[in-house]
Write a structure and sequence with these properties.
With 258 residues, the chain is α+β, with helices and mostly antiparallel strands. The protein has one domain. The protein has nine helices and ten strands. The strands form four sheets. The chain has a four-stranded antiparallel β-sheet with strand order 3-4-8-5, sandwiched between helices. A two-stranded antiparallel ribbon has the order 1-2. A two-stranded antiparallel ribbon has the order 6-7. A hairpin with a 5-residue loop joins strand 6 and strand 7. 42% of the residues are buried. The protein binds cobalamin and iron/sulfur cluster (2 copies). The site of cobalamin has 37 residues, from helix 2, helix 6, strand 8 and helix 9.
Length: 258
């Protein structure tokens, strides 16, 4: 696995697509976190339950027959992108570039990992780039965060974002392969185990950060968030959109809150 981690880190560090010339060449993403899920983990079948994701959620073998493992990764936003978005209200321009240009880079990384595995004699599919991948209004048939949970990368939070060792401000990706990679141990079983609201009954900082009033003590209203990001923000900042106020200037921005 080490040689793949090294190649991936090198790609993230050196790719020009991970830089924003408009902001003096700052990096979009810092060094990623990687983990490996077992393609036969029974939790993939659990994702088909309506209260988890839904019956449409695909299994690793639907993307790649004979799949054995999934490389799941978290790309934390750079300090510059996170810092810029700490102001309240409208999203920082740097964050909007992080959302759009950042996802373009993320797609290049997905492609890179797929090719890296294939070059090493394995079969591999970058799930979100596959024609089988479907995105709906408030879900998809391959949820990167649920895959990250299975791979042991972290847990959800009150804001329903996913909190890793490097925080919640960032983006995810995954690649399915038939390579027999060693699986990462899933240390936390509580799906909200990294959020102080659930572990100590304290925090709730993401509630007041949300300009759409989508986050309450009961959790997050996905439709309110969607209407804000793809309504107000998209209209004002087209061709970019995003928000991420709940992921910045909060105790889980760049680490698991203590
Ligand atoms: C649709 C979508 C949206 C929708 C709805 C999101 C949602 N479901 O809450 C809208 C437009 C609102 C949205 C908004 C945003 N999004 Co979005 N979005 C997606 C997309 C395409 C699919 C998400 C999906 O399939 N969700 C499935 C549903 C079912 O998830 P859920 O309801 O949260 O799941 C709950 C249940 O499963 C429950 N549960 C009940 N029983 C059980 C049992 C088990 C075992 C488990 C595990 C869970 C579980 O726990 C979960 C949490 O409560 C993903 C990309 C992808 N392919 O994954 C990006 C993604 C989730 N978005 C992302 C981001 C960054 C954002 C924004 C910050 C926008 C921005 N970039 O500025 C906001 C943040 C919203 C937030 N607070 O989470 C990131 C997540 C980053 C992170 N740290 O979590 C993703 C993963 C994109 C990426 N490639 O990185 N998004
Ligand atoms: S800001 Fe606080 S309450 Fe909200 S998700 Fe992060 S740790 Fe949990
Ligand atoms: S992304 Fe913005 S609108 Fe959506 S929940 Fe987070 S703070 Fe609220």
């Amino acid at each position: 696995m080490d040689k793949y981690v090294q190649a991936i880190n090198k790609f993230v560090e050196s790719s020009p697509a991970n830089r924003l010339p408009k902001f003096g060449g700052i990096r979009i993403f810092a060094e990623p976190l990687l983990a490996v899920a077992d393609a036969n983990d029974p939790m993939f079948i659990q994702l088909k339950q309506p209260e988890v994701v839904g019956p449409e959620h695909l299994l690793p073998k639907d993307f790649l027959p004979g799949a054995k493992a999934i490389i799941s990764y978290f790309l934390p936003f750079s300090e510059e992108i996170r810092r810029a978005n700490r102001v309240p209200g409208l999203p920082a321009e740097e964050w909007l570039y992080g959302r759009i240009e950042g996802e373009e880079f993320n797609n290049e990384l997905r492609q890179f990992v797929e090719e890296l595995l294939i070059d090493n004699g394995a079969k591999a599919v970058a799930t979100s780039l596959s024609s089988k991948f479907q995105k709906y209004q408030v879900k998809s048939n391959w949820s990167e965060r649920h895959v990250a949970f299975i791979a042991g990368l972290g847990t959800f939070g009150l804001h329903k974002s996913f909190i890793t060792e490097k925080g919640a401000a960032g983006r995810f990706g995954s690649v399915v392969t038939d390579l027999d990679l060693p699986t990462t141990e899933r240390k936390i079983i509580d799906i909200y185990g990294n959020c102080s609201w659930f572990t100590s009954g304290e925090c709730g900082a993401c509630i007041s950060r949300c300009p759409a009033g989508a986050i309450t003590e009961q959790g997050k209203d996905k439709l309110k968030c969607r209407e804000y990001v793809h309504g107000k923000i998209e209209k004002e900042f087209w061709p970019r959109y995003g928000c991420g106020k709940c992921q910045t200037n909060v105790p889980c921005e760049e680490s698991i809150p203590g």
